[in-house]
Design a protein that fits this description.
By secondary structure, this protein is α+β, with helices and mostly antiparallel strands. The chain has eight helices and 23 strands. The chain is elongated. The N and C termini lie far apart (156 Å).
Length: 454
Amino acid sequence: MGNKHDNGDVNTNKEGIRDTTGNKSDFTAGEWIFSLSKMEFLKFNDMKGTALKFILAVLILLLAIPAVKPQEIKSEKVKVLVNTSGQPEAATVKEAGKSEKSKEPAASPVKQEVKKPDVLLLEPRTMKQGETFMPDLQVITLVMKIVNPAAGIKVMVNNVEVEPTAAGDLYTYTYQLMKGSNSLYISLLQDGKEIKDLAYSIFYTDPVKNLSPFALPEGKYYALIIANDTYKPESGMMNLQRPVRDATALREVLTSRYTFDRNNVITLYNRSKLDVEVQLEELQKRLLPEDNLLIFYAGHGIMDQEADIGYWLLSDATKSRVTWLRNSTITDFIKACRARHILLIADACYSGTIFTSRGYLDNAPPAITDLMRSKSRKAITSGGTTEVADESKFAQVLIEQLKLNTEQYLTSLQLYNLIQRQVLANSLTSPRWGPISNVGDDNGDFVFILRQKE
């Protein structure tokens, strides 16, 4: 076949081998194969040389790195420290940390969060928001506590301001319920602005008459009223103006409005220590386990600071302790007395050292019945372990509240709450209420019962 000799043309020889050079090929097939293998071997040698050159370059670069000084590579967000000097890396990082730390801004002081004042309802414990409270009594006593107290705080119950107790953060309020539905709102104000409000729903119905044959047996009500306003000159005590007058008024209100028969009310006015001790012994023999006893004392009191003992001073008192009636004489009598309920009301200095036909109960609510079933030994005093004013408002307020009361059943705690607010508002005296220590109180309470109108 003819061959073309133009550049770029491809010729084919007689053996069918392609010649890309444009020249006629004189190689045989074997010679062509040998020639091709030699060319591939040369290409392999060229690749091997290139690899050796790359390895050599890497070794040279590694040997040259220690001679280069440390440099910092910076960017806007990341700072990388490259250690190329041969120095210990830890030291280099430490210096970098100091540099960065010195550039950080000083931390601003943390502001302490100021907690806002709050009001909590402690009593009645079963009264909850969002639930209808159904009490047994038509009068309920609210006990509220201020958490995180601050200046300018006021507690309001149905828009009536409540005064704090002697504790400062406790507030008590006696609330008279109407038959049927009642709404009660407790508001906490600071500087005239309401910061917390509590809302309660209350429903009151008349109690069901107790017809059980196992109802609480009715006991009699006794009262021992002791008052002294005249003292011997050798006692060093000045005469008082109100004790006998207040005692007479108390006797009248107890016998006219409440279930105290006149024959069961004993009065000792300006009597001796021995007279009192004899009468206590007589009562101990006379009283039965279901009976109730009220003891009232108005007169001078004194405190032996060294012995921590309180005394009542009767009309025959002198400067000798032998003539003084110790508080322990009263508490020993109360402990030994068989009466179910005993309430001691004392209007004297240091009186707080004493701490701690138709049936009357047919219509009593269950709560009252429970209080009267459990034994009680309670006291209400005109003050704590300090002196009180000679013209004490305590007895006057006590008698006034007993006259104004319209509740069929009035507990000693409710009476105390009525007394406390007025006494605190009109004098420096801080009345106290509570169980008498170590004489057998069993969480009951003394209950005043109004006479029923015929």
